[in-house]
Amino acid sequence: MAVLVLGGAGYIGSHTVDRLIQKGEEVVVVDSLVTGHRAAVNSQAKFYQGDLSDQDFMRKVFAENPAIQAVIHFAAFSLVAESMTDPLKYFDNNTAGMIKLLEVMNEVGVKKIVFSSTAATYGIPETMPIKESDPQKPINPYGESKLMMEKIMRWSDKAYGIKFVALRYFNVAGAKEDGSIGEDHHPETHLLPIVLQVAMGKRDQLKIFGDDYNTPDGTNVRDYVHPTDLADAHILAVKYLLADNDSNAFNLGSSTGFSNKQILEAAREVTGKEIPAEMAPRRGGDPDTLIAASDKAREILGWKPQFDDIHKIIQTAWNWHETHPQGYADQD
Ligand code: UFG
């Protein structure tokens, strides 16, 4: 049996492909390389460059790989701020892309899919930590595009029997421990890589977006989870579906919150660098606090995240940044 990984050249996708191969699985990767990196894909995976909304291309991938029994779908845009200024880009690639994909999966009879959803589907949570059963009222188009994907899946399950697991990630940070794969976005907008780029001297300073939020130090609080732990959750979710369990949704986080100021302090400790920072106005679409209740994934999937210490997570990201100052630029 083989697993098809869509977006397997991206940040979380590449960690999952690597982990699947370490576990001896056969892996087929599809990635458009619009944001992904060919060099991030483990060389033992079979690689196709293309867009999942190109249905003839996807039919060919399934026809050439009849062993595919399950799909893991990471191939989506994921920047909150960009989605606020270009929402149609998100509804087109994320939501419409999912419809095209499900049509082909239904046609070829592959009816198991694990897909990346997000904490951004919850909007401004009423209670903390956030449970899977809490209301989903996104406050940005990115979160809305993912919530629509979840809803489309629910109806596709009822009508066509396509079983899904939606994994709602909180804030992903860190890199494979040996520093061989990591996070490389263009442009980079995420907090930790930006903090580490300042530590490397590649940027002058960090701008902290808003210090008047309703949190202990006024800066946003987020729950950080490591990509290797996320990768393991995806593999467990595939097993869960292949064991004929019903569709489900799980939060993936560490259940601990760190403010933007705390992340900066922890990065100063890990790197030993000064990391200059200044306060800046709020960025659109940022909720005060996002912390996951992730007991459900632990109980039902048997997920046991290994990285529970923010210093350890930052250390793995720092290993990657120090050994790849240009990201994948030298390898792609
Ligand atoms: N931030 C700064 N300065 C920067 C960059 C970020 O202060 O230069 C702040 C943001 O305002 C926010 C926090 O750092 O308060 C985290 O921001 P990121 O951009 O790193 O991450 P987001 O919380 O916006 O979004 C991430 C993923 C989304 C996912 C969300 C769920 O990118 O896909 O986590 O929590 F939906």
UniProtKB/TrEMBL annotation:
EC code: 5.1.3.2
Pathway: Carbohydrate metabolism; galactose metabolism
InterPro entries for this protein: Epimerase_deHydtase, NAD(P)-bd_dom_sf, UDP_G4E
Keyword NAD annotated: yes
Source superkingdom: Bacteria
Gene3D superfamilies: NAD(P)-binding Rossmann-like Domain, UDP-galactose 4-epimerase, domain 1
Protein keywords: Carbohydrate metabolism, Galactose metabolism, Isomerase, NAD
Coiled coil: none
Catalytic activity reported: UDP-alpha-D-glucose = UDP-alpha-D-galactose
Family: Belongs to the NAD(P)-dependent epimerase/dehydratase family.
Name under which the protein is recorded: UDP-glucose 4-epimerase
Source species: Ligilactobacillus pabuli
Gene label: galE
